[in-house]
Amino acid sequence: MTAAALCLAIAAAGCSVGPSVRPPVAVRGDAMPATAAPRATPAVPETLPPAEPQNPRIPFYDCTAETAAAVPVPAGRAVKFECGELTVPADPADPALGTVSLGVLRAGLADAPPDRPPLIVVGDSAGDGSALAAAALAGQVSPELLASYTLVGIDRRGAGSDRLDCAPANAVAALADADPDATSDAALADLLEQARAVVQECNLTLENTLGTFSSAGTGADIDRLRVVLGLTRLTAIGVGDGAGALAGWAQSEPGNVGRVVLDGPPQPGLDEPARSAARAAAAESAFDAFAVSCTAQPGCPLGAAPRTTTAALLQALRSRPLASADGRRLTTGSVLLAIRAALGEPRNWPALATAIAAADTGDAAPLLAFLDPLTGPRGRFDGTLATACNDTQRRLAPGEISALAARWRGAYPLFGGSFALGLLDCAPWPTGRAARPAGTTRGLPPLLVLGTRADPRSPEDGARRAAEALPTARFLSWQGAGTGAYPRTPCVTGVVDAMLVDGVVPTSGIL
Fold first, then answer.
1. Are 448 and 506 in contact (CB under 8 A)?
2. CA nearest 331: which of 343, 342, 344, 315?
3. Which of 370, 428, 379 is nearest to 401 (CA)?
4. CB neighbour list of residue 78: distance below 8 Å, 6 or more residues apart
5. Torsion angle of the four alpha carbons 501, 507, 508, 511, in this order, in degrees rounded to the nearest 10
6. What is the pTM for the complete model shown?
7. Mean pLDDT by 10-residue block, N- to C-terminus, for the chain (511 residues)?
8. What's the alpha-carbon Rg for the chain, to the nearest Å?
9. For residue 456, what is the DSSP state?
């Protein structure tokens, strides 16, 4: 408790008391926004609602064996996994369209009572599903937190057991392989046809529910889960756009909010192309952190200048894609997609460095392995794309995208072109629904918002802006890297655990 209080007291200085375990981070000046001026915290009760015991109406069954095979659990930690399904309206705004089933997973100590308070976990749409995210978190959190809660993960729409699998494989390959420097009218016209093929096929498969794969839809699912768990107030942690979904739910249902942590939420209301520009800047900073981490170790596979080595590989693949033994190709576009996916998890950085170096010597297999969970059979591509498109309103024409690509290649040399080209994927997509206006948030308890300096998915400034939009939020910045700060570092873990376990409200005015 003393360490957590001390960390809270110095959080504005970067949460850096004692030995640091954060990875080395290099910050690009053109990628980091100016720090916002401190704001006055509104007068709110300096107490948090107690965590409530659960009384679930979901029929859970033991799935320990299969789940433990998919996620690591530390030796000596006896964790039990239970699986179930939550039935929700296919379209919360139109119950006549039927229902869908989402995967739900409980992860707790084997001897935990069945009514132990639940901590809901809502993962990022680019991840492998919130159910597995909760299972993985059970092996990472402190013993004190696991003794206080059973973690409950609910899959995002389009992920996990509800995985969206509708896009034609050849269209997915074309979009993933596209060279971000190829922005002629003809090249963009070809890609636009592939993007249209994805939308057309998915519309046929989903029968008018394509627009429900969104953060707003996840917010409705969260509240449905609260009801079937028998809770008045929900204690939860969200990561990335899962944190954004949780923030939207909290604003619309302030009286049902318990102890809530938003880890790397996106900036609310940010539309294209500003959203992609912010992510391109964040990806550049994350790559610089990856490069510093690699060169800080003896024998970095990418040599003394990882950015230069990677840029040379990308240029070489433009004229000669690298074929693998199974016939697949590694292209400039697919390499950038693989790198962006891997940057969010620093534990994968050594393998990423090795994979880039292997491609440089003619071996495509290691980098293609990073792509398999995204674009392989039943990969995450469809669900991630649907959420990204449905969470935005603006669609850009090919001419606008070409102009942005030219500018962003200068501002964000490694990733600018690929983020610009990615805007074409949503160009034929139906316009996303406008976000529901926030309520008064009267009765909203204190929330904790975390931001990570080199997060390639959720820029730190976006998390700061999300905190500013919530009148009771406290903002804590971690000067580390990866998607999600908790529980990567003891300092952040101390603050989060003090809040969730002991009900300690973070100090007012933390930025």
1. yes
2. 315
3. 428
4. 109, 110, 111
5. -100
6. 0.90
7. 38 38 40 36 68 96 93 90 94 86 95 96 85 92 96 90 90 96 95 96 87 91 96 97 95 95 95 96 96 96 98 96 90 96 95 97 95 88 93 95 96 97 95 66 91 92 94 93 93 94 75 31
8. 22
9. S
The region that residue 183 occupies, defined by phi over 0 for left and psi between -120 and 50 for alpha, beta otherwise, is alpha
Q: Would you state the structure tokens that stand for residue 121, as one six-digit string? A: 């976990």
Closest Cα to residue 181, out of 335, 67, 378? Answer: 335
How far apart CA 117 and CA 111 sit, in angstroms, is 14
Distances in Å between the Cα of 395 and the Cα atoms of 62, 256, 399 are 45, 35, 12
Q: Cα–chain-centroid distance for residue 247? A: 14
CA-based torsion, 248, 250, 256, 257: positive or negative: positive
Residue 178: half-sphere exposure toward Cβ, Cα within 13 Å: 31
Task: Supply 186's token pair.
Answer: 């003809």
SS3 296: coil
pLDDT for the residue numbered 45: 53
CB neighbours (10 Å) of residue 52? 18
Task: Tell me the residue type at 328.
Answer: R
Q: How far apart, in Å, are the Cα atoms of 422 and each of 179, 338, 366, 389, 459?
A: 11, 14, 24, 10, 18
Exposed, middle or buried by CB within 10 Å (0-12, 13-18, 19+), for 1? Answer: exposed
Query: How many C-alpha atoms does 91 have within 13 Å on its Cβ side?
Result: 13
The DSSP element (H or E) to which 102 belongs, if any, is: strand 99-109
> H-helix or E-strand containing 454?
strand 447-454
